[in-house]
Amino acid sequence: MDHQETLAPTAGPAAATATASQLRFEPPGRVVMIGAGQLARMSHQAAVDYGLDFHVLAGAPDEPAAAAGAPFTLGDHASFDDLLRAASQGDVVTFDHELVPQDLLRRLEAAGHSVRPGADALAFAQDKLHSRHQLAALASPRVPLPAFTAVRRLADVDAFAADHGWPLVLKARGGGYDGRGVHLLTSRRAAEAILGDPEGSAEPSWVLEEHLDLAAELAVVVARRPSGETATYPPIETRQENGMCHELVMPARLPEAVASEAVRLAESIAVHIGATGLCAVELFWTTDGRLLLNELALRPHNSGHATIEGCATSQFHQHLRAVLDWPLGSTALVRPAAMVNVVGGAGPSELASRLPRALAVPGAHVHLYGKAPRPGRKLGHVTALGSDADEALDTARAAASLLSAP
């Protein structure tokens, strides 16, 4: 008699139900992400790999993560009731954007939810003036910053221009990303057109910075667990168009001393602000040899997309591990990698018909976000690996150009 024949017979439907219950998969963790854009979509894909229960707060059912099948709560990130409804679906709350108001973040924390990163850390990504003032005041770690000032009125611009000359860079204090809220000022008239009322406001709503001559723009992505473990990806070299990251290579083509200092600076900032999850530290390297902080993002970041194929652990898997306080994965580079964004043009989408041609480019990896096209909107990205950064970039450009061709 074989083993199967020795098993006791089932006792009808009740026993079958019990057996099914015993076999049901229990997810190892439950994560709620506020926001349902492409970062949430790619985080959901990583969550599937780990068998996680992953839930998003979506503004509409056709947002990328929700449309791709992530369970979602429909609501507004500026509504505390909606945030609570979503947060109740998980053990940890995290984000794919920085738009949740500070007072609501603090109320979520006070209600007992694990918010990672927490409100104090997120303030460094949400408020450029707060970040500048807090980091400028540090003696250790010393954070090099561009010269800056708070702007309430045109007189503030006049005073700063007298010291630093034109052009200058005006940045919205909060809410700006992908080039939004950033203005190159070439004259006082340009400032007046943006600021309007010369009497200004009681609270500064802009940050004015010196204009820099750049040798390169960089990003260093650091992962940090609540228990303190950190893991850092190789520095990434980015190229911007209209304030939006257009393409990147990893590792950055930098002198070793500059790369090492970029890593040291990024890690020290992530630890100082108490980041949990990912902290993307954007940096300027100037033609006169200065390495300066640009801004921070405490979430998966466009600059980290090449880690999907380029590193042993993608930024999306790493963010989940970090917010759950799980051991972090290796950030080792598999091969030099590059990424090129696919951005919507003026015409109707023909991505479906163009996709086979892009996929025919040897070594190209296409990631589309399922977003309706409009001019200037990120619709996806292409990554590629190569024997060096230039070879990888050539491959990614070739496929991306086919996707965005008229």
Short description:
By secondary structure, this protein is α+β, with helices and mostly antiparallel strands. It has helices at residues 3-6, 13-23, 38-50, 64-67, 80-87, 102-110, 119-126, 128-136, 154-164, 188-195, 256-273, 307-310, 315-323, 351-359, 389-403, and strands at 30-34, 53-58, 72-74, 92-95, 114-115, 148-151, 168-172, 182-185, 206-210, 214-224, 230-232, 236-241, 244-250, 277-286, 291-297, 337-343, 364-368, 378-385. It has three domains: 30-115, Rossmann fold; 147-210, Dna Ligase, domain 1 (2-Layer Sandwich); 214-403, D-amino Acid Aminotransferase, Chain A, domain 1, CATH 3.30.470.
Task: Explain the overall architecture.
This protein has 406 residues and is an alpha+beta fold. It has 15 helices and 18 strands. The protein has three domains: 30-115, Rossmann fold, CATH 3.40.50; 147-210, ATP-grasp fold, A domain (Dna Ligase, domain 1, 2-Layer Sandwich); 214-403, 2-Layer Sandwich (D-amino Acid Aminotransferase, Chain A, domain 1). The protein has helices at 3-6, 13-23, 38-50, 64-67, 80-87, 102-110, 119-126, 128-136, 154-164, 188-195, 256-273, 307-310, 315-323, 351-359, 389-403, and strands at 30-34, 53-58, 72-74, 92-95, 114-115, 148-151, 168-172, 182-185, 206-210, 214-224, 230-232, 236-241, 244-250, 277-286, 291-297, 337-343, 364-368, 378-385. Helix 3 packs across helix 13 (315-323), helix 7 crosses helix 8 (128-136) and helix 14 runs antiparallel to helix 15. 42% of the residues are buried. Mean pLDDT is 92; it is low at 1-18.
